[in-house]
Amino acid sequence: MEIKDILSPDCTSCAVQGTSKKRILETISLLAAEKINDIDQTTILNSLVSREKMGSTGIGNGIALPHGRLSGLKDVVAILLTSAPSISFDAIDNCPVDIFFAIFVPEDKAAGHLQTLATIASKLSDKEILKRIRGAESDAQLYEAIIT
After folding, report:
1. Which InterPro entries match (predicted)?
2. Which residues make Cβ contacts (< 8 Å) with residue 50, sequence separation at least 6?
3. 148, CA 20 to 30 Å: which among 2, 8, 44, 124?
């Protein structure tokens, strides 16, 4: 799997003004609802919030991988956004987060999403990619930073 298989340019947003974990999750769910026509924003947000209640998806180094399962979803959908400034996200290293890579998986194909998360985490462990992501000044630059 390549990132461009699940992330499209219209699902990236650079320098979002997030003030809280809840606000970032709302922004992610709004972007996802625009991409996923058959599932409303509230359902998408609830899937993220439910997952966060089990434990933060903040993996450290300013990165979070929020994710949720959605009934009725046909294909994996990803959302990438950066926030300015970084926000408190209860990450494992207790540092604020400024890179959010969210994925939504079909409820009946949830078993495969762990490999998808591992692929994304591996890509986000590359210091050069992180530098490009954090240096992006537009949605298009953000998209290019992650897929190259």
Report:
1. PTrfase/Anion_transptr, PTS_EIIA_type-2_dom, PTS_Nitro_regul, PTS_SugarTrans_NitroReg
2. 68
3. 44
**Would you name the residues annotated as active-site residues?**
67
Q: How many CA atoms lie within 13 A of 132 on its CB side?
A: 16
Average pLDDT on 15-43 reads 93
Q: Where are the domains of the chain?
A: 3-147
Distance of CA 116 to the CA centre of its chain: 12
What architecture (CATH level 2) is domain 3-147?
A: 3-Layer(aba) Sandwich (3.40)
Q: Report d(CA 35, CA 18) in Å as an integer.
A: 21
- The pTM assigned to this predicted structure is 0.94
Q: Of how many residues is the chain composed?
A: 148
Of the candidates 53, 32, 43, which has an alpha carbon nearest to the alpha carbon of residue 103? Answer: 32
Could you tell me the CA-to-CA distances from 95 to 21, 40, 86, 114 in Å, in that order? Answer: 13, 31, 9, 24
Average the pLDDT over 123-137 and give the result: 95
Within 13 Å of residue 65, how many CA atoms lie on the same side as its CB?
18
Asked whether the beta carbons of 73 and 40 are under 8 A apart, the reply is: no
Task: Give the span between the Cα atoms of 85 and 17, in whole angstroms.
Answer: 7
